[in-house]
Amino acid sequence: MNRTSENYLDLYDFQCRMKSGVESLFPARLWVKAEISSIKTRRHCYLELSQSGPEGIVAKVSAAIWESRFRFLAPFFESVTGSPLQVGMTVLVQVQVSYSPIYGFTLVIDDIDPDFSLGEQERQRQMTIARLQKEGIIDLQKSLELPLLPLRFAVISAEDAAGYRDFVKHLEENIYGFHFDYELYPALMQGAQCPASIVAALDEVASSGKLYDAVLILRGGGSRIDLACYDDYTLCCAIAQYPLPVLTAVGHDQDFHIADMVAHDYLKTPTALADELVSIYAGEDERISTLWSRIMSVGVKRVMDADASLRLLQNRLRNAFLYKIRAKEAAVDLLEARIKGADPRNVLKRGYVLALDGKGVVLKNAAGFRQGDQVGLMFHDGRVDCRVENVKQN
User: Fold this and answer.
1) What digits encode the pLDDT tens for the residues 99-141?
2) Mean pLDDT across the chain, nearest whole number?
3) H or E stretch covering 251
4) Separation of alpha carbons 80 and 263, rounded Å
5) Cα 285 from chain centroid?
């Protein structure tokens, strides 16, 4: 079939008609919400904007920020959001529709609303919190029990991250000399792939067969948008339902993420987490030292009390013994005096005489004598033997 120039268009005419038609549909600038799926910066900034649905990407378009605008828009956006333009970020951009016969359809970005990106991030964050609460898993980690003295840790972080290095330095160089066992499970700690990477590391820890007391997720600070991945539902759901206590230390003092909210506990920075672990042992060490001091004090007091009681008992026994000895001595003295008083020699010294018969038996009355009996008269200084001549009775 023959074609004439009247019933076909050459490519250039076709593209020119496309340009005229497309640009006439959108003659003025308009605001478009989209997600950055790729970005390249040379003198100009080239982006790929997309929108995703339940089953994946439903729309995609090329966009550009010319150098004359980019050198103003980029620093302003970063000063407000704390993060440069990057993949995975949802943005609201003011665009001019452009169609080039050579390069095709392009959105030329003239302005970006940084407040929208922050607001969109917060909206997604609140939706995630509400979903976790509805599913009843937001507080599951709080029911797990952390050992009194946790020692073995699985650490999820980037090996070259400053936060991880600070954590290791503070943990290993603690002034008390405490030793901890930890093993690093590397993961991406920022960007669109961060949640999936951390979840994969959590799965690796669970399947390792090793006994850990807790899992530590460490990242040393960043902008709000940089750390938005720690509000991701999939990551937070995995942390909330994890069988081991999970401790997070992500960001600086002003940051609080959903990952922190669902974790067993959280610290502001990796350094603060290391110091907290050391302080647990330091507190227990101080408690034991205090208890030992109390035991020693009680022991010393009891020994002193026992010694005092022993001394008191010793004094009482000695006094009682001395009292009995003195009583016995007094009794002996009395008996001795009585014995001395009854001694015949003492009686004889007073002028008395004892009369003895021939056998040496004391004669107590005259009736015992007979004429011619031998009689001995006992004086105090000697004896006189006599013979009885006569006996006279009263």
Assistant:
1) 888 888 899 999 999 888 777 777 888 888 899 999 999 999 9
2) 85
3) none
4) 29
5) 12
Instruction: Kindly give, in sequence order, each residue whose CB lies less than 8 Å from that of residue 295, ignoring residues fewer than 6 positions away.
Output: none
Question: What backbone phi and psi angles, to 5 degrees, belong to 104?
Answer: 80, -155
Query: Residue with structure tokens 């995975």?
Result: 88
- The two three-digit tokens of residue 38, written as one number: 């790729």
Rg of the Cα atoms in the chain: 57
The DSSP secondary-structure symbol of 307 reads H
**How wide is the angle at C-alpha 115 spanned by C-alphas 114 and 118, nearest 5°?**
95
Tokens, residue 124: 């997604």
CB atoms < 10 A from the CB of 371, how many? 9
Contacts (Cβ under 8 Å, ≥6 apart) of 132: 138, 233, 236, 237, 240, 258, 262
End-to-end CA distance of the chain: 203
- Structure token digits, residue 111: 């302005």
The pLDDT-based confidence of 338 (bands split at 50, 70, 90) is confident
- pLDDT, tens digit, for every residue of 220-277? 766 666 677 888 999 999 999 999 999 999 876 556 789 999 999 999 889 999 999 9
Neighbours of 246 (CB within 10 A): 25
pLDDT at 140: 94
Burial of 96 (0-12, 13-18, 19+ CB in 10 A): middle
What confidence tier does 340 reach under pLDDT thresholds 50, 70, 90?
confident
Task: Kindly write down the DSSP assignment for every residue of 317-336, as one continuous string.
Answer: HHHHHHHHHHHHHHHHHHHH
DSSP assignment letter at 229 = G
C-alpha 164/C-alpha 343 separation (Å) is 110
pLDDT of 4:
57
What DSSP string runs through 64-92?
A: EE-HHHHHHHHHHHHHHHSS---TT-EEE
Phi/psi at 371 (5° precision):
-65, 135
| Burial group, residue 9, by CB count within 10 angstroms (0-12, 13-18, 19+) | exposed
Single pTM value for the model? 0.56
pLDDT value of position 142: 93
Return the closest-CA partner of residue 135 out of 265, 231, 241, 53.
241
